[in-house]
Amino acid sequence: xxxxxxxxxxxxxxxxxxxxxxxxxxxxxxxxxxxxxxxxxxxxxxxxxxxxxxxxxxxxxxxxxxxxxxxxxxxxxxxxxxxxxxxxxxxxxxxxxxxxxxxxxxxxxxxxxxxxxxxxxxxxxxxxxxxxxxxxxxxxxxxxxxxxxxxxxxxxxxxxxxxxxxxxxxxxxxxxxxxxxxxxxxxxxxxxxxxxxxxxxxxxxxxxxxxxxxxxxxxxxxxxxxxxxxxxxxxxxxxxxxxxxxxxxxxxxxxxxxxxxxxxxxxxxxxxxxxxxxxxxxxxxxxxxxxxxxxxxxxxxxxxxxxxxxxxxxxxxxxxxxxxxxxxxxxxxxxxxxxxxxxxxxxxxxxxxxxxxxxxxxxxxxxxxxxxxxxxxxxxxxxxxxxxxxxxxxxxxxxxxxxxxxxxxxxxxxxxxxxxxxxxxxxxxxxxxxxxxxxxxxxxxxxxxxxxxxxxxxxxxxxxxxxxxxxxxxxxxxxxxxxxxxxxxxxxxxxxxxxxxxxxxxxxxxxxxxxxxxxxxxxxxxxxxxxxxxxxxxxxxxxxxxxxxxxxxxxxxxxxxxxxxxxxxxxxxxxxxxxxxxxxxxxxxxxxxxxxxxxxxxxxxxxxxxxxxxxxxxxxxxxxxxxxxxxxxxxxxxxxxxxxxxxxxxxxxxxxxxxxxxxxxxxxxxxxxxxxxxxxxxxxxxxxxxxxxxxxxxxxxxxxxxxxxxxxxxxxxxxxxxxxxxxxxxxxxxxxxxxxxxxxxxxxxxxxxxxxxxxxxxxxxxxxxxxxxxxxx
Length: 777
What we know:
alpha+beta
């Protein structure tokens, strides 16, 4: 199924005007067809293609045209399916083109109005994941004349990517993180079409861009096989939330010695891997800009993960692109340069750390930024490396923390002289970072509060696109859910895409026209054209977790009402229960060591009940479909045998069935991002058989049952009440399946692993699970 939400309806006059602009204004079907055979340059070569393809199940196209038979809808869509590359699907439907288009979800029009039918066909997706008009363009249909051409309100790839300008400048920031008395300079790399047109700008703030220090990063990873320790209840975690920043003398701005029209530094290849969505737009007349920011190669300053200073430095780049800040042609001459090629309309793009900084810059309210397209972005760094008073790792990266990530991207190390000059300062800076993050305490404090962008959401002025995987256990779904919720009452237009993948991009996914939608979106946001993108693009787009290639439009994410399950003796019921259940958080040393190295196997064994370190509770077998929409709340009365303790919880879908893989599968097709430019693999989510699927997860320190900021007392064998939300989701439960809850302590992938002999007891009479179900009517 092809899901196209970026296609807009236009009147017949507009259709005719656009068809003329792209050279498809004929009313003769054979003329249109031959013109679409871009790769076949002669009449004879085209005839060969016509003889190899069918008009009906009994006649090839060449004979159909030669005998001057009337064009019917059946013939049109039989040929159209082959033009789009759906030959296998067509054959499966007995060469019924109309049935094939219906099966694929593609538009069908009457051929009595041939131009309209052809217009709709040009706006249909091919088997190669591109609009038909875009696929023709990638085959060289258009001359790359470096002028913008819109079709269905989307920019076509008419810009020459073989003649791109690549240049570097240095933006003077308003921070001095290396305390040398001068504002830090950051290198900015620009890639743009060679045209006199003023260009809209896609800016990606990527600390990864200038290279990674993988060996130093690995050496700095913290040991997670450490015991959970008791916290001092007399120390208030709130005490330093109002702490003032240390004041230092104001740095000096550089004196401008003159202005240059052209950059002094050029490059032939980007320093880091380009963002595929950016490549898509380069051939469509957009400039692309990368900056790694302070504390990276060819720039000044210290690397401080997610800090206000890091955000400010990226905001300063936006200001230069918008014409509101100075940049220089190099780091010493003080010759200034302006972005005279920019139309001063900027979008920020990127996934993970890149999308995080895009979100953070949006919270500054900086002028010139028009929209953000953030994917798998962090909105609160505490929720990335901590959770409810616990040190919690992003999935797959035990032992990583703020200082470890900073070490990875402090790429000034790669220039020997710069490294020798800054080594001692960097080591001291990192020691301070490790002290501030406090891996023993795990509480929310001033350090984390300054890296919580949700505090400044009210300052966001731009319209937002958010993309997140509901199976992303690296940047977990709470990051986008809390941002989405915080934006709910603001006047900004916001759109969210919830897919079933892990920590991935989705712009090369076969079943969703994400790139097309962003093309339409940026026509409005950066080209200042009213194309009704706000109204046309869905508010919430959700990928169905039960069916391949199925996407649905939702009005909202997050049900306001929750149904209650009571926790019983290995069951979830609608009736309150009594009694106690116990489990012990300890494993024999050899088994413990094995799971430390194979935490995927640990999770499987936990879900299937092969370990004694947990309790599993299952609902009744469902007879009808229902959907979990939002955050599941766990209410638990529990006691620990010691004066310390943590609780983890998983919610699982139990049922022998097919489940979508969390990693999409390469389809063996390469998508072109222009004409022979930046090819990328076409991906699609496929299914596999399994007996279960983890839906969501959560963790809490028993001493932080009131708040991540507050340490509560805890005595051995003292019952305490916990109320904490698991990671939000939107998940469809099918008939024949059961909802399962697993309660345990140590999470081998995410929490510290002390292997302490702690016994936990659950009071069933005071324990329940609140699930935000929406049932199918």
